[in-house]
Amino acid sequence: MSLDLRSKAELRAEKRKNRTGVYLVSPGLLVLALFFALPVVILLAMSLYVKPPGAEVGEFVPGFEISNYGTVLTAYWPELLRSFFFALIATVLALLIGFPMAYLVAVRLREKTLLQGILLVLLIAPFFSSFILRTQAWKQILADEGFVAQALKFIAILPADGHLTATPIAVVAGLTYNFLPFMVLPIYANLGRLDTRLLEASGDLYASPIVAFTKVTLPMSAPGVFAGTLLTFIPAAGDYVNSALLGNNRDTTMIGQVIDSRFFKIIDYPGAAALSFVLMISILILVTIYIRRFGTEELM
Amino acid sequence: MRQKIGRWLIPVIGGAAFIYLLVPIAYIFVFSFNDGGRANLQWQRFTMDNWLNPCGAPAVCESLGHSLQIGVVATVIATVLGTGIAIGLVRYKFRFRKLTDVLIILPLATPEVVLGASLLAQFLNLGWELGYGTIVIAHVVFCMSFVIVTVRARVSSLDSRLEEAAADLYASPVAAFWKVTFPLLLPGIIAAALLSFAMSFDDFIITNFNSGAYQTFPKFIYVSATRGIPAQANVIGSAMFIVALLVVVTGQVISYRKNKQLENS
Questions:
Q1: pLDDT tens-digit profile of A278-297?
Q2: Residue of B nearest to A47 (CA)
Q3: Considering the domain B64-224, what is its CATH architecture?
Q4: Number of A–B residue contacts, CB under 8 Å
Q5: Residue A26 has pLDDT above 70, yes or no
Q6: ipTM value of the model?
Q7: For the structural domain made of A68-299, what CATH number should be given?
Q8: Residues of chain A neighbouring B215 (CB-CB closer than 8 A)
């Protein structure tokens, strides 16, 4: 048993202080409970709705139709797998491109404040010019009659009847492009704190640059890499703007597109809700495994 | 020799990546000067008309106005509520902390399409009409998590002894908050608000689920993408990019000057 040595007045002050905490947290928490937690529960309920016999389009009654899940999963498992596959490739590519970017800005240009500032601004500013406008710009840049496709055809990398848009490559490139800043910024934040004297020390101890990288730089930037991969993978898996604008055919359909069209074109609310729920749970499972395997305390 | 390759590899890959990041923005900027008619797909000839008359195409400025308004309103609400949660979580003890943590992290781990779909399911069940109000609610929810994470990092790094010192100097808790804590948190809160505005302004997927017939700027572009986006949209995209550049540059100059002042004093 521990002895509480504080006086009654102190305890009362503490209680009052903690009540302030409740006042600070409650309004926001209420919004999250009403407009995040409750909707997810309603989504789950809706995924089990039944279509009564002879019902009109869009008419459903509450029920417990677990077979809704079986139906949509049999029909759309390829799109679900493809979404995770595309998101995975895009995340790996974003890491391969984003790490050198973050390293360049955070470590190599550390002394050159002006250039570092300019590149950092260029990294953040694309957020403000609409991402759909940028995706559409890619579509036009990569179009069949565009400069890039023509040049690739000229040097025979692309066959004369080949396309760049409407391919899985275009969709993955678009995903990589759109979520790249989400990868770079957390890594930049971590590398900014990297003490370069550690690298010099490893060099003095005859470590090759590669060994110095794997033993010093990479472990020191691990929390940034960890946060960046999550911030890229999660939105990429659910995205459908890239697959709709840059792909838009059967080989590129992602699960988000299916959910959108089930909701708005086919008006199959239970099916769309079931797919959304499956997507949410699969991502949560993947993320939990990932956090257990590689997680760090520093994430939050 | 290998060392030399290593020295050059990072700037080359990093530099190429920056070009990759900026190519579409350059394209948007160049085509904002195109006299390309309604579709603006092929380069025709140079014109200033689009810049002189950015509202020339139907619905461009209307949807932009909607997006700016929603962005500001959602950002103000999300920043106030999120800052409250961030301070409360770090500085105070209360029950259900673990649950609160989960409630904050979960929206970040949920893809937009699921957030949008679940809110739509709720609004359909409640029988609420989709439009301005439902968009603002949806934006507040997803912006709040980003605000909480950003501000919380700032609160955690704050030295709580500063507030104790204020209390020792007979500042009331309220005075201590506004005179000491808040000014120190302000850069974090501003960064969170900017991030929140950017996320709201650029959001398409969640908005698309919860907007009904209400037009926002991203929605306008997405819908017109099939028949060609008018050059005026490029003007607005470029202008937003330039404004963002100016805002971030100003912020950097201010923090640079402050650091210089601190060094000198």
A1: 999 999 999 889 988 876 55
A2: B121
A3: Orthogonal Bundle (1.10)
A4: 257
A5: yes
A6: 0.86
A7: 1.10.3720.10
A8: none
